[in-house]
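Hi support team,

I've been running sequence recovery on a batch of backbones for a student project. Most finish fine, but this one hangs at about 90% for roughly twenty minutes before it completes. I'm not sure whether the input is malformed or the queue is just slow. I've pasted the structure tokens below so you can try to reproduce it. Let me know if you need the job ID as well.

Thanks,
M.K.
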């Protein structure tokens, strides 16, 4: 019998496996994906949001606990557990030396990500390199890894973990860490969560999945059905507006279109529907997927002009390009006159001061609903560009309720030997909204906590048996 069983293969699972092994426990990690697709959504990440009191190697300035907390409070609208959120924040300040010991390397933020140079530490080689480093370290330390091993059920005794089942095979362990992701690639569950809209559409049918196809929520559903305490709204997620031509799965970061704040967003009726200049892009980019999901046909269009070119990370796919707005409308399939009228109304409302996309500048609109509160400049310089965008789900926020030890709860009581980390519990911290890099902060913090807790539970059982 193994001491600690870790179910999952991404950042949180690997952090748990490494911590448990370092604590002296024997560890088996079960990854549902084949080896070439290992790592879950973590393979698509690129940075970690970090609290720090002074400049640190790749991090500039200071990013104290209270500022991190206020940033999180703002994006979640207060739908967060402050004790658990602050635990994540504090853990983010002391994990990077440990990460380096396991082969993770960091680099300064590059052009296009300079807004994050103070708050986020970037992984050299991105999330794939991080995942590979952790797997190499885990294998060196003697962690057993099985690929293509999706767990379909757990055997529980009350709230106590007994064994996991894989296609009839039974795997016992003294303690278990669940880190198998959300249910974003389960279309049926997404349909159930979102239902039909006023137009009779199933919005979820038009969602693209930015991350792995293997996160189907099988164990999440199983645990909830077994009486585990859950938290979060199943319709809430890290949901980004991504290029409508992106693949159904595993498009990752490169499918993002980051020019929204430099122009306007319209729906398929060629009408604006939200303030594009509400706040800095890293803090607000993740609201746009949900906003687009609420529009007819679950599609939106980002419109910019030549003045915006060079001020955002170039998209992988080139956008529609035209010398006139009617021509751009035709390319995008929008009503020509309505788009022209929308842009004329926006242009007339612009009050341009000193444009500066690196600060919350004074370029805004007046007498326009919805307003654009920053970076508002007329769209009047050819050529014009347009990008069709759809909701891209990264991970879902419905999860299992936890405490500071990462224990799964049943009827309000913490399990003695079943723990959870990563997307399966992120809803404790993220009730809604997102800010860049915080998913990795949650996964790293609670992965490390869960691994430590599981090892302690397992080794305590060994000690009792030997006494």
């Amino acid at each position: 019998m193994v001491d600690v069983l870790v179910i999952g293969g991404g950042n949180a699972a690997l952090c748990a496996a490494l911590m448990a092994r370092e604590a002296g426990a024997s560890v088996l990690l079960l990854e549902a994906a084949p080896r070439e697709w290992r790592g879950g959504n973590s393979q698509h990440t690129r940075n970690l949001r970090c609290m720090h009191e002074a400049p640190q190697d790749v991090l500039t300035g200071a990013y104290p606990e209270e500022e991190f907390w206020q940033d999180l409070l703002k994006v979640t609208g207060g739908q967060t557990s402050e004790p658990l959120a602050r635990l994540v924040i504090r853990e983010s300040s002391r994990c990077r030396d440990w990460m380096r010991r396991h082969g993770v390397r960091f680099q300064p933020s590059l052009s296009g990500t300079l807004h994050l140079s103070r708050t986020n530490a970037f992984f050299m080689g991105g999330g794939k390199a991080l995942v590979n480093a952790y797997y190499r370290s885990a294998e060196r330390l003697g962690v057993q890894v099985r690929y293509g091993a999706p767990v379909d059920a757990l055997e529980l005794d009350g709230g106590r973990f007994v064994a996991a089942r894989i296609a009839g095979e039974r795997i016992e362990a003294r303690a278990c860490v669940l880190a198998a992701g959300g249910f974003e690639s389960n279309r049926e569950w997404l349909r159930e969560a979102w239902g039909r809209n006023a137009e009779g559409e199933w919005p979820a049918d038009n969602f693209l999945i930015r991350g792995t196809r293997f996160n189907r929520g099988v164990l999440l559903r199983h645990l909830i059905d077994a009486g585990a305490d859950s938290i979060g709204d199943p319709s809430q997620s890290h949901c980004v507006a991504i290029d409508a031509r992106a693949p159904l799965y595993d498009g990752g970061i490169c499918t993002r279109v980051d020019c929204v704040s430099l122009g306007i967003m319209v729906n398929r009726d060629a009408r604006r529907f939200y303030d594009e200049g509400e706040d800095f892009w890293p803090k607000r980019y993740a609201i746009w997927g949900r906003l687009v999901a609420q529009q007819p046909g679950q599609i939106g269009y980002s419109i910019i002009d030549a003045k915006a070119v060079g001020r955002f990370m170039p998209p992988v796919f080139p956008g529609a390009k035209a010398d006139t707005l009617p021509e751009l409308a035709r390319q995008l399939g929008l009503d020509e006159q309505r788009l022209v009228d929308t842009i004329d109304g926006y242009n007339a409302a612009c009050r341009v001061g000193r444009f500066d996309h690196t600060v919350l500048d004074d370029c805004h609109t007046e007498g326009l609903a919805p307003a654009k509160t920053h970076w508002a400049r007329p769209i009047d310089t050819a050529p014009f560009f347009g990008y069709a965008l759809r909701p891209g789900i990264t991970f879902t926020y419905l999860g299992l309720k936890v405490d500071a030890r990462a224990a799964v709860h049943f009827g309000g009581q913490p399990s003695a030997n079943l723990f959870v980390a990563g997307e399966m519990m992120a809803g404790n911290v993220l009730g809604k909204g997102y800010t860049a890099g915080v998913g990795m902060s949650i996964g790293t913090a609670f992965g490390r906590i869960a691994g430590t807790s599981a090892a302690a539970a397992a080794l305590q059982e060994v000690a009792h048996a030997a006494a």
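--
Follow-up from support: It reproduced on our side and the slowdown came from queue contention, not your input. DSSP finds twelve helices and 21 strands in the chain. No action needed from you.
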